[in-house]
Amino acid sequence: MGVKTAMEWLSSCSGCEIAILNIGEDLIPIITEALDIVHAPVLMDHKYFGQTGEGLTLEIPEATIGIVSGGVANEEHIEVLEEMRKKCTILIALGTCATHGGIPALMNGQDRAQSWKEIYQTKTTDPGGEVPNVEVPAPLDRVYACDEKVKIDLQLPGCPPNPAHIAEVIFSLLEDRPPVLPGKSVCDTCPTKREGKGDVSKLRRFLTNAEFEPGEPIDEMRCLLEQGYLCMGPVTAAGCARNGAPSCIAARVPCRGCFGPVRGAGNQMLDMMNALASNGIDCSSVIDRRSMLRFSGAHGMLRPVKKMVVKED
User: Fold this and answer.
1) N or C end of the chain, less CB within 10 A?
2) 309 pLDDT above the threshold of 70
3) What is the DSSP string of the chain?
């Protein structure tokens, strides 16, 4: 028998689960020999309240390893997450939604009540549309990362996370050793040419292609930040690199920050503003600063902007 493992998803898109499948052939011995999956809603039919609904409280089987993807957005998510923490010896937060809020946490930057109203009660909805409140979990005041609600033993960010890193974490746990994971920034793994400070003073919007010769190796292209594009590489955790270059950079596209802050408790927006200033770029040319937190809006980073009240004379 393998190591008992429980898997759960909260406010997520299943991209993390697809990343597990993308481990490839190495996944076969993992799921057939190494792990004994006792609970995984995405893979197997295991009811929270018993197979026939006879239970009175939510229950998840005990497991040595617990893997949770997705952030915490409603009361059901909290209940499931707390049960996972209670029943699992080691709890892993998988993916940027679980570690930093991810895309769902963009909602944190808006007024929650107004957002629900716009979603369910606009002119494009049926007349009399109401925000659902019957037999659905009550939403929380904002979207939380998992470690804001329970103790997390290992964080593995990424949108989606790197399949090779997922495999490394699993094998390291089975072999009782620390996992070998990247600890630097995307810039540290980027092979593009750097020539010092860029020669632009204002950010260029990515409405035109970056400057490079078609077909040239990625290490012959100049750094996108030095070209004046908002590349989040300096403040984003490494982990997406494959075939020698970060995924976005390999496609000649600026890093969008999907692996979360390189510093454990970092603020990607503030750190990026410093990076822009040190690169000689006028920070006032940033059109939407809060968009730098598009993947890391949990931990209180994104909050609704208070509307200014203009007093009439």
Assistant:
1) C
2) no
3) --EEEEEEESB--SHHHHHHHTTGGGHHHIIIIIEEEEE-TTTS---TT-TTS--SS-----EEEEEEESBEEEHHHHHHHHHHHHHEEEEEEESHHHHH-TGGGGGGGS-HHHHHHHHHSSTTSPTT-----SSSPPEEEEEE-GGGTS--SEEE--SSPPHHHHHHHHHHHHTTS------SBTGGG--SB--SS-S-SSPPPTTS--S--TT--GGGSB-TTTTT----GGGBB----BTTB-HHHHTT-----TT-BSSTT--HHHHHHHHHHHTT--GGG-S-GGGGGSS--TTTT--PPPPPPPPP-
Residue 310, pLDDT above cutoff 70:
no
- Answer whether residue 269 is part of any domain: yes
State whether 32 and 151 are in the same domain: yes
* Same domain membership, residue 291 and residue 244: yes
* Per-residue pLDDT tens over the stretch 52-93: 778 788 899 999 999 999 999 999 999 999 999 999 999 999
What is the domain count for the chain?
2
Mean pLDDT of 261-284: 87
Q: What is the pLDDT of residue 179?
A: 93
The answer to whether 12 touches 69, Cβ cutoff 8 Å, is yes
Tell me: do 103 and 32 sit in the same domain.
yes
User: What is the span of the domain harbouring residue 149?
Assistant: 3-174
Query: What percent of the chain is predicted at pLDDT more than 70?
Result: 95
d(CA 295, CA 98) in angstroms, rounded, equals: 11
**Does a structural domain hold residue 313?**
no
Q: How confident is the model at residue 263 (pLDDT cuts 50, 70, 90)?
A: confident
pLDDT digits (tens, 9 = 90+) for 142-164: 999 999 999 999 999 999 999 99
Phi then psi dihedrals of residue 83, to 5 deg:
-70, -40
Cα 164-167-169 angle, rounded to 5 deg: 110
Cβ atoms of residues 200 and 227 within 8 Å: yes
